[in-house]
Specification:
It holds the Pfam family SPASM. The protein is of the alpha/beta class. The chain has a single domain, classed as Aldolase class I (TIM Barrel), CATH 3.20.20.70. 35% of the residues lie in helices and 14% in strands. The chain contains 12 helices and 11 strands. It has helices at 34-40, 49-62, 81-91, 112-119, 135-141, 147-164, 186-196, 222-243, 294-297, 311-315, 318-326, 331-334; strands at 7-10, 20-21, 66-69, 94-99, 123-129, 142-143, 171-178, 200-205, 251-253, 278-281, 287-288. The strands form 2 sheets. The chain has a 9-stranded mixed β-sheet with strand order 9-8-7-5-4-3-1-10-11, with helices on one face. A two-stranded antiparallel sheet has the order 2-6. The radius of gyration is 20 Å and the shape is globular.
Length: 342
C-alpha cells in the first residue's frame, strides 16, 4: 500500500516523569496522582522491550524514517532508552527527541554528556522543554526545575552537539507552551535561545486540561490574544535581523497570529498535520492517530493494536481511512491546537 507516513511516536513511558509541569495532562499538580490513577486502573505501563523492537523494525520496513520516543512522560526515564538508540543506529532511522531538560540519570553513569554522546549521532532534533527566563516563571510552570540548572544542562548538551557538528548535525529546539504566565517573557526566551546556540524556538497554544489553568489560555481574552499577535510580529522581525548575519538560520515554529474574530478556532481552514503522515502507539500497543490528550483522542475511534495486527494493516483499515475522510467534522479536530493556518 502506498502511503506518506514518515514518522511514528512511541509513548513508551507516559506515566513516568520527574517533573510536575502545570499544563501536563498526567503529571500536573492538578492531575490525579499516580496512586489515584493506579487505584482507578488508568495508570499505564512501560512499553515492553520486545514490543518496542517489533514496532521499530516494522516501521523501518514500511519506509518510516523518523522515530519519536515518548512525548508523554520523560523519555530518558524509559529503562530501554538505550535499546531505542541502538535500533535507530542499526536501521538507519533518525530519532527526534523531546526532553524536559533535566537529563535524569536512572543509572550512575548517565549524565548530560552521556546522553548527548548517545543521542546526537542519531538525532535530527532535540527539543528541550522550557517555559521562562525568570526563575519564578520557569519553576512555577515546570515544577521541579530551576532556571540555572536548565541553562547549565543546555550549555553542556550544546557543547557535545557542536563537537559532532562536522559529522552529523543535530538541531536544538527550545520548546514552550504559550500561556499568560510566560507571554511577556517570550521575546527574552528568543534571545536566550539565540545566545545558547539553539536553532529554533517552537511552541504550542495551551491545552486547558484542568479548570485551574483555563485562565492561562491566550485564546479566551482579546487583550491577551492581541498581545500575543504583537509578540509574534516582534519575534519574526528579530529572527529576520538575526538571520541576515548568522551562519545558521534560526527558525520560529507555530509563531502565527490568532484570528481575533474566531479565537475558538486556532486555525480556520487549517488541515490536520498528522493523518496520513504520522502515527502514535501507546505503551500497550494501541494505535493512536494524533497527539491529542489521551482520553480525548479515544473519542475518535478504535484503530487496533500492534500486538495483534501489523502496522501496515491498521493504517489500511476502514476505521483509519474513514477518519481521514471525516476528521473535519469531529469536535476534537475542530478545536485542535496543532493545526496551522491553511
Amino acid at each position: 500500500m502506498a502511503h506518506e507516513f514518515w514518522r511514528i511516536t512511541l509513548d513508551t513511558n507516559p506515566d513516568f516523569c520527574n517533573l510536575n509541569c502545570v499544563m501536563c495532562e498526567d503529571h500536573s499538580p492538578y492531575a490525579d496522582s499516580r496512586a489515584e490513577r493506579k487505584s482507578s486502573g488508568s495508570l499505564r505501563p512501560l512499553m515492553d522491550a520486545d514490543l518496542l523492537e517489533r514496532i521499530v523494525r516494522e516501521a523501518a520496513a514500511m519506509g518510516i524514517r523518523e522515530i519519536i520516543p515518548s512525548t508523554m512522560g520523560e523519555p530518558l526515564l524509559y529503562p530501554h532508552f538505550d535499546t531505542f538508540l541502538d535500533l535507530c543506529a542499526e536501521l538507519g532511522l533518525t530519532l527526534n527527541l523531546t526532553t524536559n531538560g533535566t537529563f535524569p540519570a536512572p543509572k550512575d553513569h548517565q549524565n548530560v554528556e552521556y546522553w548527548a554522546e548517545r543521542i546526537v549521532p542519531v538525532t535530527s532534533d532535540v527539543k528541550i522543554s522550557w517555559n521562562g527566563v525568570s526563575e519564578k516563571t520557569q519553576s512555577e510552570i515546570m515544577v521541579g526545575t530551576t532556571l540555572e540548572k536548565h541553562i547549565e544542562n543546555a550549555k553542556r548538551f550544546v557543547a557535545i552537539r557542536d563537537k559532532w557538528a562536522s559529522k552529523h548535525y543535530c538541531s536544538m529546539t527550545m520548546q514552550l507552551t504559550f500561556m499568560r504566565s510566560n507571554l511577556e517573557e517570550i521575546p527574552e526566551m528568543l534571545e536566550l535561545a539565540l545566545n545558547l546556540g539553539f536553532d529554533r524556538l517552537k511552541g504550542h497554544q495551551l491545552w486547558t486540561h484542568f479548570d485551574q489553568i483555563k485562565h492561562e489560555s491566550l485564546r479566551n481574552d482579546l487583550v491577551y490574544a492581541s498581545r500575543w499577535n504583537q509578540i509574534v510580529r516582534h519575534c519574526h522581525e528579530r529572527v529576520t535581523v538575526h538571520n541576515q548575519t548568522s551562519e545558521r538560520r534560526f527558525r520560529l515554529d507555530n509563531f502565527f497570529e490568532l484570528d481575533l474574530v474566531k479565537l475558538e478556532d486556532i486555525s480556520p481552514g487549517g488541515e490536520c498535520p498528522f493523518l496520513g503522515k504520522e502515527l502514535w502507539v501507546d505503551p500497550t500497543g494501541r494505535l493512536n492517530v494524533c497527539c491529542a490528550p489521551d482520553q480525548q483522542r479515544k473519542s475518535l475511534g478504535d484503530f487496533g493494536n500492534l500486538n495483534t495486527s501489523k502496522l501496515s494493516e491498521l493504517i489500511a483499515s476502514s476505521s483509519y481511512q474513514n477518519l481521514m475522510a471525516t476528521y473535519q467534522s469531529h469536535d476534537l479536530c475542530k478545536s485542535c491546537n496543532m493545526r496551522r493556518p491553511a
